[in-house]
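**User:** I keep going back and forth on a fold encoding question. It is easy to fool oneself when nobody else works the same problem. Could you pick a protein and write out its sequence and tokenised fold? Could you put it straight underneath, so I can go through it closely?

**Assistant:**
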Amino acid sequence: MLTRNCLLLFLWILVNEGSVFSLHQPSSPLGRSRSGRERGRSSVGSLRNGAAGFQRVKRGWVWNQFFVLEEYMGSDPQYVGKLHTDLDKGDSSVKYTLSGEGAGSIFTIDQTTGDIHALRSLDREEKPYYTLRAQAVDIDTNIPLEPESEFVIKVQDINDNEPKFLEGPYTASVPEMSPVGTYVTQVTATDADDPTYGNSARVVYSILHGQPYFSVDPKTGVIKTALPNMDREVKEEYQVLIQAKDMGGQLGGLAGTTIVNITLSDVNDNPPRFSKSFFHLRVPESSAVGSAVGRIKAHDLDIGRNAEVEYIIVPGDGGAMFDITTNEHNQEGIIILKRPLDYESKKAYTFKVEATNAHLDPRFQSFGAFKDTATVKINVLDVDEPPVFNKPSYVMDVYEDTPAGTIIGAVTAQDLDASGSPVRYSIDWKSDLDSYFDIDPVEGTISTNELLDRENIAQHNISVVATKLSDPVLTSRVAVTVHVLDINEFPPELASPYETFVCENSKVGQVIQVFSAKDQDLPSAGQQFSFRTSKEDIKNKNFTIRDFGNNTAGVVTKRSGFRRRLQEIYLLPVVIEDNGYPPKSSTGTLTIRVCGCELDGSLLTCSAEAIFLPVGLSTGALIAILLCIIILLVIVVLYVGLRRQKKKETLMSSKEDIRDNVIHYDDEGGGEEDTHAFDMGTLRNPKVVKENLFRRDIKPEMQRGPRPPASQDSSDIRDFINQRLKEHDTDNSAPPYDSLATYAYEGDGSVAESLSSIESLVVDFEEDYDYLSDWGPRFKTLAGIFGEQSEIHSDSTNTENTH
């Protein structure tokens, strides 16, 4: 391995001879290093300074990108390359520095010579390249002699990774009987080596195990069938080993393998086959209809849907007695009994059964018919059977009120076995709890035990049991239905109370009413009614009855010119008769009213008052007339009300407090001295002044002594009046009409006496306030206050009297 690496390193140095630079004259650094610089730009220009392109910088030293082999196993550090500048005169005055990815840890540089070495082995699959920066500085002053430059060290790939199948192992399927070259699946291997360098990542596929059944494309890894007509029934699963080798499959390349499990999927290439051509079955004759009497099976080598089998019975001897179905779980043919078996009638049946595939594949029909046929023979076994009735059920009719002991019918059963045992009959007591019927145990005749009432029970359902005399355990039953017939007890009557009318303009022979009848007797479906006019009314000149023959009849007019003024109601007797035995009949009465009608016969009115209305006025016209009358009455009432309202005086009055009233007289007085234009005495009406009148809306206070009347010549009164006069004379807000100012003082000559409230405190405590209790709950508190005050006053009065 070491020898090979050294050889590769030597070849690499020869190819990349520009990696080591010799000393150039600083006077023309660009001219003598042009080729090397341009190669360096083309290789690392995309990585320098992070730009897609870069500007040429005048400097005295350049280098190309460097390469280092991965997986270097030498004991000494691996030499990468050498840095050199034209400014380096070899006098050790220039120092080279290195920075960037891996500087110091992976890569190191000799500060004097500029040699770069890799300190450890590198793996390209981990990191394919490293970006570093180099600079030449003065060894004494550390002043940069050149601008810092960026370069790349690439890790050169070697074939150290084998191809790998990341998705393996694989599973695939292909239909059986597929032609050669049918696609199965595709495998893919990946190689971690550099696909752009050499053949390290060039993979070639091959089959190590699985031939000659399958093949693989060496470039794409597509697996196809290589052998025709592979049969799933012979071999279903195959395991194929696929190899992927790099270096284009050459000697020395690395390889990886994977397993592909291939399954042949089923197709319908096999017909069903019976295991034998003849099946022998035995079935008791007592087997129930619809029961399974046997099973046969045709085997199909296919699976799933392709193995589904359908069975049919070939028309023949037993085709009408048996049927066959397929069990979906195990594909067996189940033979089912379609009709009852009778050993005495036929002891064996033979027929053929055909088995076919339910889903055929047209590609394989050339192989032959996909069906098989077998013969089935069924022997009927004799079984001791119960008696058999000659009918599955019996229906009998009997009239109600039939005398007890009357025979209404008979049942018959017999033993069909060879022994021919006698049969005995009985009625199941659970079906006839009230014992309405009886049966002869030998003859099987059924009779009544008591009178039957259709209105109570119209139908009886009883069960008759036939027992084999030789083996009482063997019994059979039959249902007997007994209908109780009606003896026509009720007469027919009208179906409903009909409201019949005849138009005044009706014509002769016109049907004015269709009616029907009903009957409480049953069944109603078979009843037939007839209708006619009663014998007493046979000479009726107005109406007659017409029977339509379908349980309905009509009232027909015999004349025209009916008038409500002459006669409003007609009564028509109708005789209704049924067809029962014995026939019943009744007489119903139809009430016919005479009505007014339109020309087309539609009803207008049947009321008697309508005949007094003027001829030619319709209902709409009458309503319009009534509305006009009502509107006129309303207008008159409104007019009268407005007239009365205009006559009322616009006088505002209040009955609560006369001191707050303002009375407008709408006339102008002659001044203060005018006593003729208006009589002030109207304000002092003696009729409304009562002795000792006091207010009831305030609580009375303690009685005080009477105040002496003020003297008319009192100076304070005179001053007060003069002051009030001046205020009213100078008041600009006074109303523009004469007003009366009250000064709570009246002279001695007043007719109405004093109107002021100065002396209103004089209260007569002898007033009785008990009437406040009669005013209700709202005045309860007020009544208590005044009542308590009255008691105190009366007590004080009594005390004074006592003293």
